[in-house]
Design a protein that fits this description.
mainly alpha, 6 helices, 69% helix, transmembrane helix
Amino acid sequence: MPEAFFTLLVFQLIGTAAQAALNLPVPGPVIGMFLLAALLIWRKSRASRREAHSPLSPDSEPGTSAASPALAALSRTLIACLGLLFVPAGVGIITELPVLSANALPIAVALFGSTILGLMVTALVMHRATTGGAAPEKLPDTGGQVL
């Protein structure tokens, strides 16, 4: 498991270095997480292509993960402890309670206003996307065939 933790730290370091070098507005650990996910997806697709070319290969099992067993176990352990990571955020909210209570009305207006605005934009986009075509009852029945 130490090598899996080292892998996570290396990708966090790579992400932080990329964020600092490119002056990106995204946190470095998030960039590292996306890079690790991209690497795992690439490894899984490469393994599935190799499996398709030689299905009787003894070293590959169908449906195996691209991540090492240690990385998978560490990931499950960290996800199990994920709730603890919200404690500092909760403490931060409590310590900033005077500031939040002083600005409660603007915060509430911003939350509810952005929610209503998001719903209205979504409804407008859906309305525009669905009008102008044939009515659903007038579409030809293709017997469930898409193409």
